[in-house]
Design goal:
Blueprint (H helix, E strand, L loop, with lengths): L6 H10 L4 E6 L2 E4 L4 E3 L5 E10 L2 E10 L4 E10 L7 H7 L2
Parallel strand pairs: 1-6
Antiparallel strand pairs: 1-2, 2-3, 4-5, 5-6
């Protein structure tokens, strides 16, 4: 795994690898921002995961592919404080 010092560095590398779309976490699903499309568990996998810690907060940048929809994109999760609880929808996709 490559080490990144900042979130923008990780995003830039993912863009170079074809992860050009944006995802947001919406409950137990991913929201494909550009097409306003909901993607459920089982319809996507996480190919890359990078943790960046800066000034007491952490950012995790995920490289995600939704093969059924032919979408490669990025999800960014921000965490503050000592607890980093990963949403179950992401844990299920990480375990594949």
């Amino acid at each position: 795994m490559k080490i990144y010092l900042t979130g923008p560095d990780a995003v830039s590398d993912l863009h170079k690898n074809g992860f050009t779309n944006d995802f947001q976490l919406l409950g137990n699903e991913l929201w494909f921002v550009q097409e306003k499309l909901s993607i459920r568990v089982g319809e996507f996998i996480i190919l890359e995961c990078h943790k960046i810690t800066e000034r007491g907060s952490s950012v995790i940048v995920y490289g995600i592919i939704a093969t059924y929809h032919n979408i490669k994109g990025i999800l960014i999760s921000h965490y503050k404080g000592p607890k980093m609880i990963t949403p179950s929808v992401l844990v299920k996709s990480l375990m594949k």
